[in-house]
Amino acid sequence: MKILVLNAGSSSQKSCFYDVPDDRLPDQPPEPIWEAQIDWSRDKAELKVKAKGQELKESTAFESRLPVMEHMLSTLWSGATQVIADPSEIQGVGHRVVHGGQDYKDSVRITAEVKAAIDHLSDLAPAHNPVNLEGINAIEEILGDVPQVAVFDTAFHARIPDFAAVYPVPYEWSEKGMRRYGFHGTNHRYCAQKTAQILGKSLEDLKIITCHLGNGCSLAAIQDGRSVDTTMGFTPLDGLMMGNRSGSVDPSILLYMLREEGYTIDRLDHALNQDSGLMGVSGISNDMRLVTQAAQDNPRAKLALDIYIHRLRALIGSMVATLNGIDALVFTAGVGENAADIRSRACENFSYMGIKLDAEKNNSRPQDQLISAADSTVKVLVIHAQENWAIAQECWTTLKES
Ligand code: AMP
């Protein structure tokens, strides 16, 4: 099945094209046969396409995004990067959609009703759902009635029990939809599946904590292959300390800043989403590499790192309690995959329950492999986040079932 994946963000659009066998999904993630990226953040749209060892770079003025996307897609079937003879060879398009609310618990084939729901949920994800919808409409315009699938960031968490999802606020707020939705679900689900595969066990037999530590950070507690708790909440601002985002803070701080310091809502929003986290505390960067480097002689960078570790340990502990013990602890995404020191410091305080890392494996740039010592009570793994492949898999499965 030839599958196109569209991963649209507010300032960029990443696309991949996979040729997936029809009879079964491969065990190892295949390389996409074509990759493209459009950066919308400058005056001109910057397009990069990679396929068949060729690289195409173009920059074009744009008034609307549709013609640029149309041109990007045409590089699939024409020019030096051509990988198919005709657009009709595309059998499915998978879209990353950030918010699926409470109703979408799995990926779905896109219909007019699904589009209306994505639109309706834009209030909850204003930076993402509208651009996701724009991508869906663009594909309809350019490729006609090719089957499209929405893969929601929230879906994997949509079965979290109410006691973990409902906030202890006036109940009317919950009735308005204020609850823990959770995000990064596509990667949490993928990491759980990959863990089961690596350990040679059934997902139903495993209790897993997945630590998605990128610029955004979240944990998921996974039992029977389902997320039963997660640290991001109503929005991706809740939970762990992140690159630019604060994670959980006492809500009274917000009231104080509004009341006593004259902050506007927008300024508060910006402070918590952009000027907080590693960036806010260190004053140096949102990038873990730079903060770690600076921490050797800069007290604020060291403090930022110590808060990050403290909160990571605390929330891993909370997930362990939710699951009543775990079989596997997984690190994924930019920090989780690359920062051996963060992994070892996070695990250090769980030595009481028998978690033990193999220092050599932890330090050897592991990918899709175990890093725990042979006698560790819990398996610890590093899994490479493969968001586009995970979306292609979901698209394949959804279209096979429909
Ligand atoms: P992601 O959101 O998954 O792309 O992760 C991006 C973040 O990963 C960057 O902002 C860095 O903080 C972090 N990162 C990437 N490479 C490394 C590394 N070698 N060591 C520590 N952190 C890294």
From TrEMBL:
**Keywords, sorted A to Z:** ATP-binding, Cytoplasm, Kinase, Magnesium, Metal-binding, Nucleotide-binding, Transferase
Site features described as Transition state stabilizer, chain residue numbers: H184, R245
PROSITE patterns assigned:
ACETATE_KINASE_1 (PS01075), ACETATE_KINASE_2 (PS01076)
Q: Where are the catalytic residues?
A: D153
Residues annotated to bind ATP: K14, H212, L213, G214, N215, G216, D287, M288, R289, G334, V335, G336, E337, N338
Give the E.C. number(s).
2.7.2.1
Instruction: Please give the catalytic activity noted in the UniProt record.
Output: acetate + ATP = acetyl phosphate + ADP
In its UniProt record, a GO molecular function of this protein is: ATP binding
How is the cofactor bound, as the UniProt entry phrases it? Mg(2+). Can also accept Mn(2+).
Binding-site residues, substrate: R96
UniProt: Mg(2+) binding residues: N7, E387
Q: Can you say where in the cell this protein is located? A: Cytoplasm
Family, similarity comment: Belongs to the acetokinase family.
What role is this protein assigned?
Catalyzes the formation of acetyl phosphate from acetate and ATP. Can also catalyze the reverse reaction.
- What interactions and quaternary structure are annotated? Homodimer.
What is the protein name given in its UniProt record? Acetate kinase
Chain's gene name: ackA
